[in-house]
Amino acid sequence: MTVIDRPEAPHTPPRQPxxxxxxxxxxxxxxxxxxxxxxxxxxFLLALAAIPGALLPQRSLNEQKVAQYIADRPTLGPWMDRFxxxxxxxxxxxxxxxxxxxxxxxxxILPRVFDHYRALRTPPVRAPRNLARLPHHYAxxxxxxADEVIAHARRQLRGWRTEVREGGSVRPAGGSLPDHxxxxxxxxxxxxxxxxxxxxxxxxxxxxxVFHLALVGLxxxxxxxxxxxxxxxxxxxxxxxxxxxxxxxxxxxxFRAGNVNDGTGMAPICVRVKDFEAEYLQNGQAExxxxxxxxxAGADLQTDTWRTSTIQVNHPxxxxxxxxxxxxHGFAPTFTVTFPNGQTRTETVQWRPDDARTFLSxxxxxxxxxxGMYATEAERRKNQIAVEGLFAPTALxxxxxxxxxxxxxxxxxxxxxxxxxxxxLDTGKxxxxxxxxxxxxxxxxxxxxxxxxxxxxxxxxxxxGAKVTFDGAQEFVNLQxxxxxxxxxxxxxxxxxxxxxxxxxxxxxxxxxxxxxPADAEAGTVDQRRTVVEMGGxxxxxxxxxxxxFDTLRARLxxxxxxxENTGE
Length: 569
What we know:
Layout (H helix, E strand, L loop, with lengths): L17 H16 L2 H14 L1 H5 L7 H10 L3 H7 L9 H30 L14 E7 L3 H11 L4 E6 L2 E3 L22 E7 L1 H27 L1 E8 L6 E2 L8 E4 L11 E12 L5 E12 L2 H4 L3 E6 L4 E3 L2 E17 L5 E5 L3 E2 L7 E7 L9 H5 L2 E9 L2 E4 L2 E4 L8 E9 L16 H5 L3 E9 L4 E3 L5 E17 L3 H20 L3 E10 L7 E13 L6 H12 L12
Antiparallel strand pairs: 1-24, 2-3, 2-4, 4-23, 5-7, 5-22, 6-8, 8-9, 9-10, 11-12, 12-13, 12-22, 14-15, 15-16, 16-19, 17-18, 19-20, 21-22, 23-24
């Protein structure tokens, strides 16, 4: 009978159970996420993700600009809105990068903190067997004992972490080799040998850790500010009027609350704007905005005490944990409508600056007739007055076309269309502050009665006998009330980051070793007054400047002049 040898089937390792594979996947994912390379990539992605927030209008800052941007791009704009490019800093993708960066940094830093703690508790490493292989080396024979050389070197190494070892064992400071030192602790068999290990620059890693911990603190502080803070903007006429109080988000023209803040519980502050002054260069460029205000906060609200202050751009008022910023200004034209029965209505409404250089502004003003003037509500609505047009602080006319030549109110004028009819005030629909509803005009509910250029004191008369007079203009200021409970921690974290970065860049990590033993110890004859000295140095980071520092240390530690020959370098 013939036996045929069949080749054995290849050995297949047993398949790991599903829980083990899942655990390995989680472990490998965590290791990849918490690597410094991943943290750097996420930091780059975060900076890249912030670019659309700087280049595109953001809904939290100016919703009208966002709406206009989308309207100008009917195809691309809606898709950009779907990807939250107009709400970058609250978008899901920016938040995802932000959270992943935070987790990655924490996972990178915590192990390094424990490693650094262990390094601080670990004695400097033993001297290498061959010091001549180090980048910096010195060897010589001196007329002193080994103990004297080591003792002098140790006194000179203040601020360095040092360890003295005999025959491979640690010698306590000021003492001799312990009796219980075992033979395995001796790495050199040379009789009478003593080594000194010294290391300096541990604060470099400490500075590095402080920088990264402060970066995590900065991210946390910014996140807390976004969660619990709020910002509200309001336009106030600078004529010492009633002002506003931060009692509700409704008092603001625009309000943005934090993700976990509904706008309630705000610190009560009341503000009145006394005046406003703008300084310009000769070319019309703004130099400084200044506003004198009065405010109440805290106990002042109970005693009705008003305090005075001056705010400027980038110089806010800080009170009750909030900041009051002066963001900008503009002009608010004043019109008076004299109705046929002699009654008058005067309105002052802010108009939007369309030209930041000359402050040519556009806007609209709506005036409702006095109550009881008309028999029915329908009749009253048919006689509402609307004024829409342009305002120039320093008028410049090209024929009948009005423009502005300078942003200061030297020669104010308006070019307006005056309408009579239903302005839509009673419809309940939201209306633009700076333009009329085009549908009202298209449907004939608003009829244009006049198109005129007016200077202060001039007027025009409508077909029903009503007279519209341009009285001039006043300046308004745009104020922002901002609350950020973590603002101080943002500053502290930023300063800590700078301090840690400077320390990590300026401090050098270096090591030196000194080995001494009696002369002729290897030949079996020992001369206690003649000692062979070997010294080696190693810079663990940047080598720049270490050679000269090593020579200086050698001269100081071995009590030599700096010009002594370095035989091993």
